[in-house]
Amino acid sequence: MSSREFHITKLGKIYCADSLDLMKEIKTSSVDLIITSPPFGLVRKKSYGNVNADKYIEWFKPFGFEFKRILKENGSFVIDIGGSWTPGLPTKSLYQYELLIMLCKEIGFHLAQEFFWWNPSKLPTPAEWVNIRRIRVKDAIDCVWWLSRSPWPKASNRRVLLPYSESMKALLKNGYKPKLRPSGHDISSKFSIDNKASIPPNLLAIPNTESNSYYIRYCKEKKLPQHPARFPSDLPEFFIRMLTDEGDLVFDPFAGSCVTGEVAERMKRKWICCDMVLDYLKGALGRFYQVGSLFPRSRHTKEIFYKLYNPSARWDILSDDSLLIDGGKKRQINNEITIADNRVTMKNAATKEKATKIAEKSFRYRNKKAFK
Ligand SMILES: C[S@@+](CC[C@H](N)C(=O)[O-])C[C@H]1O[C@@H](n2cnc3c(N)ncnc32)[C@H](O)[C@@H]1O
Question: Is the dihedral of CA 170, 173, 179, 180 positive or negative?
């Protein structure tokens, strides 16, 4: 594999190659975890060349077979796959579900569990359906399929525990009376044993807001492109922690800026990262070495949490909440009010200041009416 070898670290190797070719040189049953975020079947083309949603499954299939071949019997394949909208329509492609079905039914992977990565900082898009016509909600979830060769991949949720919620802490303090729940679940006294931390759900709250990281500063300094679709390091870290041991081999076949490699190196796993675009890999080097006064970041324990409101908690905010009979097919030209981050703004006004003034006045008026 040396001809395509781009860089070597203490534990990892970076290759600049088509990963389908590279995998032919990787031994059968040798990888503990494949974790990756492939190019998504996006409607809008990204600079690194996405395949259209409908052709996606056929494009992915040969990769899928190779992934299965190189994985160990108790290994895992975790794929972060964002959604895609039908061009020109407010409907979604089924491609990430078709992909999942193909990987399981045709290639023979098991779905160990589905995860959902919620990006709390996601902007409201697509603007046409979400902000302008107001007929869809913000798309803030990526599907993350955890697949495995056998139904028994090695794993432990003890590695990825969370702090207890305030209500759980209160329950532990005040005690819990064992009883049969209406659902039939028998909540025994074991429920009130303090295990110091709680088992996480399959919803991972991770903002993707890197804006001043070492990697970004390195790319700026070296005048290299910043990868446009990086995942946050907390995402591969969760799965590397839960599914591998120190010394295991982790592979990212669509590595981009090598976030996976950075996390694996820090966590003392061996790793291979592969991408076809040389400039992305040149930028990735910044993740591994000190350059000038810049240092790669190290991981801190972060007890950050996100609040999720009860769905439609502000249902009462507008007095006129009639539905669009045509489902929003015809674009409405109105002075639409947008409320975000405690700011009220209105579209279609001559100036921004004017828009905000009118919108705030109207908002106060509507609110008064609604609360009467
Ligand atoms: C969504 S990005 C991955 C980003 C990465 N997770 C990160 O955080 O930087 C997908 C990457 O796959 C790469 N790619 C697409 N087809 C490839 C192939 N056949 N072999 C290797 N890399 C490929 C693209 O160049 C792109 O950088």
Answer: positive
Tell me which of 197, 218, 247 is where a domain ends. Answer: 197
Which residue of 51, 216, 275 sits with most ligand 1 atoms within 8 Å of its CB, as the best mutation to test the pocket?
Answer: 275
The alpha carbon of residue 140 and the mean position of all alpha carbons in its chain are separated, in whole angstroms, by: 9
Q: Could you report the per-residue pLDDT of 131-177, keeping only the tens digit for each? A: 999 999 999 999 999 999 999 999 999 999 998 887 777 878 777 66
Q: How far is the CA of 256 from the centre of ligand 1 (A)?
A: 5
Q: What is the pTM of this model?
A: 0.84
- Give the count of domains, the chain: 3
Q: pLDDT over 70 for what percent of the chain?
A: 77
What's the CA-to-centroid distance between 2 and ligand 1, angstroms?
20
Cβ–Cβ < 8 Å for 347, 336: yes
pLDDT > 80? residue 62: yes
Please report whether residue 175 resides in a domain: yes
Judge whether 117 and 146 are in contact, CB under 8 Å: no
CA of 255 to the centre of ligand 1 (A): 5
| Ligand 1 nearest-atom number relative to CA 257 | 9
